[in-house]
Design goal:
Blueprint lengths: L6 H16 L59 H14 L1 H11 L3 E6 L2 E4 L6 H27 L6 H24 L2 H10 L5 E4 L6 E6 L2 E6 L3 H15 L12 H4 L20
Antiparallel strand pairs: 1-2, 1-3, 4-5
């Protein structure tokens, strides 16, 4: 300021200088007040906005796009090809019925028979081998269904729900039918040849087969029954129990709430720690 400066101009300069030192929004030249800086929409008033925070449109989610906000929950279901996934898993479980049938043939005993002039008869009265074959098949297929349900629950987390239940049920049914057909056909041609050509008194064995299960045809529609349904039954019950005891309502793991949105930093000028000096 110079000595020739008038009193109104000196007062205006003193006001501008005080505003520059304090950082406050002082009046503009001419007596016009400075406007307050606009806060981003949806941001709590008085809290500092982190650098890089996008400004959302009016009416949009105020937390959308925040750097600490998760864009998508882990394990969320995305649009894809669920039908192809279901068909692929059903085909895979059905194909696993082939080694299951080999395991059944290895575990279940064959039934001894004897050739007579009247035909082929059991070597002993009321043999136990056919009952053992049914029992081994029931245990193996039931265990297969339980293990398949647990495996699909763990591996296909994004397909949990009705689609997973349908997949494991159809896959268990297909695996049981394949295991039955593979097991009963091992040694079947040799048995039929001996039945037709073996002389009386020849002793041989009959391959394993089911007596408590099979497939009935109602026109062109096959309908499995008996212990062929145990794999599908075990898979459906196990999958339903896993869904019923799941800790997540959506059946998919959800992140911890503390990891998605940390508390905002305290405003400058305020102290919160016990050893901090009080603000002026």
């Amino acid at each position: 300021m110079s000595p020739d400066t008038s009193e109104p101009e000196r007062a205006r300069e003193r006001s501008d200088g005080a505003d520059a030192r304090t950082g406050g929004p002082g009046p503009r030249p001419g007596g016009v007040a400075r406007p307050e800086p606009a806060q981003p929409p949806g941001w709590p008033g008085g809290l500092p906005v982190p650098a890089g925070t996008p400004v959302t449109a009016p009416g949009a989610d105020p937390l959308a796009g925040h750097p600490f906000m998760a864009a998508e929950l882990p394990g969320a279901t995305r649009s894809g090809r669920p039908l192809l996934t279901v068909l692929g898993v059903v085909a895979l479980l059905t194909a696993l019925g082939a080694p299951l049938g080999l395991l059944w043939v290895w575990a279940a005993p064959a039934t001894p028979v004897r050739q007579t002039p009247a035909g082929t008869v059991y070597a002993t009265t009321q043999p136990e081998q056919p009952i053992a074959a049914d029992g081994w098949f029931s245990l193996l297929t039931l265990g297969f269904g339980v293990l398949a349900a647990v495996a699909l629950w763990v591996l296909l987390r994004r397909r949990r729900g009705p689609a997973g239940l349908l997949t494991v049920t159809l896959g268990g049914l297909g695996a049981a039918v394949v295991a039955w057909q593979v097991g009963r056909r091992i040694g079947l041609s040799t048995f039929q040849r001996l039945v037709e050509t073996a002389p009386p008194g020849t002793a041989f064995t009959k391959p394993v087969d089911l007596r408590a299960g099979g497939v009935d045809w109602y026109g062109p529609l096959p309908l499995p029954h008996g212990n062929l349904l145990l794999a599908a039954f075990g898979a459906a019950v196990t999958y339903t129990l896993l869904a019923g005891w799941s800790r997540w309502p959506s059946l998919r793991p959800e992140p911890a709430p503390d990891a998605a949105w940390p508390p905002p930093p305290p405003p400058p000028g305020f102290s919160s720690a016990p050893g901090d000096q009080p603000a002026r």
